[in-house]
Amino acid sequence: MTTVVLAVSGHGYGHAVRSAQVAGELLKRGARVLLRSEAPIWLFPQGVEPIDSPGWPIDVGVVQHHGLEFDIDATRDCWRRVGHDFDARASVEAELLRSVRADVLIADVPPLAIAAAHLAGIAAIAVTNFTWDWIYAAWPGFEDIVQQIRSAYAQADLLLRLPLHGTDADAFSAFKRVEDVPLIARTASKPKSAVRAELGVPTAAKLILLSFGGFPARDINLDALAEAAGYTFLLTLPLSRDAHTTAANVVVLREQPADYVSVLAACDALVTKPGYGIVADCLANRVPMLYTDRGPFREYDVLVDALHRLGCARYVPRADVLDGRLASHLDALLDSTCTWSELRLDGASTVAQHVLNLKKQACAVP
Known about the structure:
Layout lengths: L2 E6 L5 H15 L3 E6 L11 E2 L13 E3 L2 E2 L1 H13 L1 H14 L4 E5 L2 H10 L2 E6 L3 H5 L6 H11 L4 E4 L16 E3 L11 H8 L7 E4 L21 E4 L14 E3 L7 H6 L3 E4 L3 H10 L3 E3 L7 H12 L2 E3 L2 H6 L3 H9 L11 H18 L2
Parallel strand pairs: 1-2, 1-6, 2-3, 6-7, 7-8, 8-9, 10-11, 10-13, 11-12, 13-14, 14-15
Antiparallel strand pairs: 4-5
């Protein structure tokens, strides 16, 4: 049995959601799958085994205080602390990999995990549409951090590059071998009518999902949504955790739906900030997106371009989202003519097979 360790950034839910798809495909093929991540375990399929943290997160990502705002200074400070102890932490992480007898590590996309795999003498495969050195390179004061991350990424055996990626010269320059794979995305398993019946929402209602990844958006004026009388708004966790509203057209789910993507597909549109996971799921299920900006993040422009080129999307100013002024923007989005592109959605199975083939090749070397 091949033992695969998934090292997954806990920044938002996007990294975890796509890694969970890969985990499911690996489990189907008989692999043992272990998880090193701060992302919640419920995002992953049953059978994935969590590894206890040695006392620090596997990745820094970006410090966020809510779903629509980055703290660049705090991110820089956090990385400087990690960078000071990077080699020592990599040694501890390497010992963890040895202790579980890992054969292969998949990183999405913590540089610390790749450095640890190199020290442990096991193959390291990065799976991502962007890398942290590329993100940080656009921010001031990260020059030494970027170099440290690139040195770690250079130790990866392979990068399996997902669609919706940047094309800048420095986007993947640290990796010695890059192969492209199809989109990793989820598709609905339940019909729209069944999901709406469970939610108590009429089939004819214009249902709009509000979602901001793994972050709450505490500053949204939910009561103002009552003015959008032609729409029913749906809130899921974690956005719904602090939600208090008297608006009759707002449905608040206090528990995470077992099949989030079927809930998404049952909606007429989504209001969100663009991240890989939610963009991929909207494209796969053909759900129009009303998106707002997420601060100075290089991935944003790439994803927005893909939304307009491959699907159906419209920008809404952040102030209008926070003030609950969505009706006119939703009217324009749903009245627009969209052409959806046909996309390959077998990225998870492609990645899983790549990983297991790499293990077979390693075993075949005399």
